[in-house]
From TrEMBL:
<keyword id="KW-0456">Lyase</keyword>
<comment type="similarity">
    <text>Belongs to the RlpA family.</text>
</comment>
<dbReference type="Pfam" id="PF03330">
    <property type="entry name" value="DPBB_1"/>
</dbReference>
<dbReference type="InterPro" id="IPR034718">
    <property type="entry name" value="RlpA"/>
</dbReference>
<feature type="domain" description="RlpA-like protein double-psi beta-barrel">
    <location>
        <begin position="27"/>
        <end position="116"/>
    </location>
</feature>
<dbReference type="GO" id="GO:0000270">
    <property type="term" value="P:peptidoglycan metabolic process"/>
</dbReference>
<dbReference type="GO" id="GO:0008932">
    <property type="term" value="F:lytic endotransglycosylase activity"/>
</dbReference>
<dbReference type="InterPro" id="IPR012997">
    <property type="entry name" value="RplA"/>
</dbReference>
<comment type="function">
    <text>Lytic transglycosylase with a strong preference for naked glycan strands that lack stem peptides.</text>
</comment>
<protein>
    <recommendedName>
        <fullName>Probable endolytic peptidoglycan transglycosylase RlpA</fullName>
        <ecNumber>4.2.2.-</ecNumber>
    </recommendedName>
</protein>
<dbReference type="GO" id="GO:0071555">
    <property type="term" value="P:cell wall organization"/>
</dbReference>
<dbReference type="InterPro" id="IPR009009">
    <property type="entry name" value="RlpA-like_DPBB"/>
</dbReference>
<dbReference type="InterPro" id="IPR036908">
    <property type="entry name" value="RlpA-like_sf"/>
</dbReference>
<keyword id="KW-0961">Cell wall biogenesis/degradation</keyword>
Length: 124
């Protein structure tokens, strides 16, 4: 095998390995935000919830997962960290802190269609 072909195959093998170890996933659905009455209460992760932090609740994502949330009606985005479980309303995929909801202009409507993106790492 000549040198250019060898380099190509090494690059190809490296690329496949990189993409199989970590992949970006997308979900679409409705987002809402926490009521003020939850401020100061413990979350499912054990952290104290604060409306002033960029956090969110998701039903299944591991705690600590970083998620990019895009409001599909205006294109605004925010990055949040999952630290709680929920939402428990049918059709909703994520509950945001008030600060996160404000960043994507969700507080007036209360609920919006969003897309969430996150990386899922392959377990060893």
């Amino acid at each position: 095998m000549n040198k250019p072909n060898l380099l190509f195959y090494i690059f190809l093998l490296f690329s496949v390995c990189m993409f199989s170890c970590s992949r970006s996933l997308v979900e679409s659905g409705k987002a809402s935000y926490y009521a003020d009455k939850f401020d100061g209460r413990k979350t499912a992760s054990g952290a104290v919830f604060s409306q002033h932090k960029l956090t969110a609740a998701h039903k299944t994502l591991p705690f600590g997962t970083k998620v990019k949330v895009t409001n599909l009606s205006n294109g605004k985005t925010v990055k949040v960290r999952i630290n709680d479980r929920g939402p428990f309303v049918e059709g909703r995929i994520i509950d945001l802190s008030k600060k996160a909801a404000q960043k994507i202009a969700l507080t007036t409507a209360g609920v919006a269609e969003v897309e969430i993106k996150y990386k899922k790492k392959k377990s060893s």
